[in-house]
Amino acid sequence: xxxxxxxxxxxxxxxGATSVVGGAGVVGAAVPFVASWQPSAKAxxxxxxxxxxxxxxxxxxxxxxEWRGKPVYIVRRTAETLAAISEIGDDILRxxxxxxxxxxxxxxxSARTLAGREEYLxxxxxxxxxxxAPLFRPDVGAADLGGDSWMGGFFCPCHGSKFDxxxxxxxxxxxxxxxEVPPHMYESDNVVIIGVDAEVA
Length: 201
Description:
Order of helices and strands: HHEEEHEEEEEE
Number of domains: 2
Radius of gyration: 26 Å
Largest sheet: 3 strands, antiparallel
């Protein structure tokens, strides 16, 4: 009788141990399987879309994400900034209407963004001169960038090119074009997808 009790206990122990080991094996097999659903680093570099949560981006701030191996700047602009951008004259900017700029057809106007999403600016953070990364300089009136005429924007430390807070290049600097606007769309109020055209999605 005692032997049967011992065997029953042993049987339960072995069954439990086998279940634990089997469960660990399932998890071990599932992790790489689920991970394979995510785009690889090679796929991202080749242009796989990148989802970005912008819910915590504060007004007046910038965040940087990577797409196709390039930095992408996302800036949340204030209403005052947008008003100032619309008043910058053609005499200050090389291409105020972005006629020569690299940007999707659905992006237009001085805000250079999707209609209804003017608060957010999305740019490839590479100077159109030689590809340096421009610094984010939102400080209005910065003495080293023109004083009262500087309404905030981007400054390339390599050769001195300046861009406004829509990425439009100033006249008389080495950069020949406005900063590039990548294809993008909004999945929701808080999530933007870089690398997918709004018109296609």
